[in-house]
Design brief:
Strand order of the largest sheet: 5-4-3-8-10-9
CATH superfamily: HUPs
Helix content: 25-40%
Keywords: Cytoplasm, tRNA processing
Number of domains: 1
Protein name: Cytoplasmic tRNA 2-thiolation protein 2
Radius of gyration: 26 Å
Bound molecules: zinc ion
Number of strands: 13
CATH topology: Rossmann fold
Number of helices: 16
Family: Belongs to the CTU2/NCS2 family.
Largest sheet: 6 strands, mixed
CATH architecture: 3-Layer(aba) Sandwich
GO molecular function: nucleotidyltransferase activity; sulfurtransferase activity; tRNA binding
Subcellular location: Cytoplasm
Shape: globular
């Protein structure tokens, strides 16, 4: 297929397929008239329900046991409880409904038929199921607080615990303490004014959580950075809630459609290395900031608890990742789920970020070419990111790629030093371009950079060409922005911040480049005079 002009070359347009293949009858039972078309295949209402439940179980259940033990038949025995990350949107509403029907209410119609009535799969899987909602309204001006509506929605389902959080808990030391963590660390922030990301003491005492949140968001360089930071903060808040509730699993209501959006927008923001984590990830809490054992509920013996504690991880699963948004909407409609909905993350003057643009594009694509969205996800599923993991990012908790700092130092040309003293009259000596060395490379002050993954570093430093309006223009600007509590806690446990790191396994310390070394590297990329002419 060419990329030609569709008006002169009819072949340049992608052929639009018929909405459904062959007949209007359900592909499964063959005789009922279809009610829904899923990627060109027709299903009736009766066949759609088991199909959706099958797709949901097929993704979730192989991840339940700590060690995957092959196909079916074995009992599902998770290492802990379950947290449902709930946003109020369509996907997480459908997820909550499915989890409740299949694993809490133990609705017989959702059970697999194999193995008979006493099959171990027909028992309760997670002892406790917690719904955690993170309210983000305080991050944006004029947004409604939906906590009460969400609480009401969750109360439709019995036997679920509800934990409402607010996005500013990410900057709240009392919350951190409630999570069983020590708060004996000093007030540290980061200078977001330039790319050196220096770690500095906060000029005032640590502000209240709401001010800290708004100062942090106002210091970010782009609307995209604000959106992805709120997503990252929400994710880490959910993970700590999972840890605190003794949960081994955190499930998110990411549908096939929203997974395609997050994959494409993630890659666009430099998160290609974490493409696998978008589908499934295992999170290990920081050893330095692990909660004290008595705050983690457990009914085992002291010894068992300690060894369990040492290995505690949280598995993030997206059980709707094979189910498109249209199927979710159909499920919600037929099951009478009153979806609360989510508000758009906007503020006056802000241009849409990469995530919003990608979402608009993918939703349009899904309408016209329904198979393309699942192709995106399947293709991304085949990607195997190169490079090894060098510990965990101090901000988002995801694996960071080794060697990112060196690589970034090699390819980034951001600040041009002033031109050398004028000797331009001598034309016979060709001007050698001065190596571009950011000034900050020469200094040895502690920086946040070596602790960050590539996408987080990009989020904090990648500037827009035009000035970006802040959601909170009246927030007092400070040169040093506060950091989320988990970041502060981890930095604060090292007395000599940034210069040396206690746990070498955890974090790769950035190499400080000497002028000569940098010059050598830059020269690699310069053409020889002969080649150039
Ligand atoms: Zn049917
Ligand atoms: Zn990160």
């Amino acid at each position: 297929m060419s990329c030609g002009n569709p008006t002169t070359e009819p072949d340049a347009l992608m052929q639009r397929r018929k909405k459904y293949d062959k007949t209007k009858n359900c592909v499964r039972c063959k005789d009922a008239q279809g009610n829904i078309v899923i990627r060109h295949t027709v299903y009736c209402k009766n066949c759609f329900t088991p199909l959706l439940i099958h797709k949901f179980r097929r993704v979730l259940e192989p991840t339940v046991n700590p060690k995957p033990d092959g196909p079916r038949r074995t009992a599902l025995k998770p290492a802990g409880n379950l947290v449902i990350g709930f946003s109020g949107g369509l996907g997480s509403s459908v997820l909550l409904d499915l989890v409740h029907r299949c694993y809490v209410a133990l609705d017989k119609s959702t059970m697999p038929t194999e193995g008979g009535r006493d099959h171990p799969r027909h028992e309760r899987v997670w002892k406790k199921v917690t719904v955690c909602y993170v309210e983000v309204c305080d991050a944006f001006p004029g947004m409604d607080d939906r906590t009460d509506e969400i609480a009401h929605f969750v109360s439709r389902y019995d036997e679920l615990d509800f934990v409402p959080l607010r996005i500013q808990h990410a900057f709240d030391r009392t919350w951190w303490e409630r999570m069983g963590r020590s708060t004996s660390f000093s007030d540290i922030g980061v200078g977001l004014a330039d790319e050196s990301l220096l770690i500095e003491p906060l000029s005032q005492t640590y502000p209240d959580p709401l001010t800290a949140l708004r100062t942090y968001l106002s210091s970010l360089p782009t609307p995209t950075a604000i959106h992805s930071s709120i997503q990252a903060l929400t994710r880490v808040l959910l993970l700590h809630t999972a840890l605190q509730t003794g949960s081994s699993h955190l499930v998110l209501g990411t549908s096939l459609t929203s997974l395609a959006v997050s994959l494409i927008s993630g890659v666009a923001q430099g998160a290609g290395f974490n493409v696998r984590e978008e589908s499934m990830e295992e999170w290990t809490p920081d050893p330095e900031t692990r909660p004290t054992p008595d705050t983690v509920p457990d009914d085992g013996t002291e010894g068992a608890r300690k060894s369990k504690e040492a290995k505690r991880t949280v598995r993030i699963v997206r059980p709707l990742r094979d189910i498109g948004m249209k199927e979710c909407a159909t499920w919600a409609w037929w099951s009478h789920i009153p979806v609360v909905g989510k508000e758009k993350w906007v503020w006056p003057g802000a241009k849409p970020g990469i995530g919003t643009l990608t979402k608009d594009f993918i939703l349009g694509l899904e309408q016209d070419y329904p198979s393309t969205v699942s192709t995106i996800v399947r293709t991304c599923g085949k990607l195997a990111p190169k490079g090894e993991v060098a510990g965990k990012c101090i901000l988002c908790g995801r694996p960071a790629q080794r060697g990112v700092q060196e690589w970034k130092a090699r390819i980034s040309i951001r600040s041009q030093p002033p031109p050398p003293p004028s000797d331009s009259d001598s034309t016979d000596a060709p001007a050698t371009p001065a190596p571009v060395v950011p000034e900050s490379k020469a200094d040895t002050r502690p920086s946040l950079t070596p602790y960050l993954c590539y996408p987080c570093h990009t989020t904090l430093t990648s500037r827009s060409a035009r000035p970006v309006p802040s959601p909170w223009p009246d927030t007092a600007h400070s040169s040093v922005a506060p950091l989320p509590v988990w970041t502060e806690a981890r930095l604060g446990t090292h007395a000599d911040v940034g210069v040396s790191v206690a746990d070498e396994e955890e974090i790769a310390v950035a190499k400080k480049m000497g002028q000569e070394e940098m010059k050598g590297i830059v020269n690699e990329f310069l053409l020889d005079d002969e080649e150039a002419s």
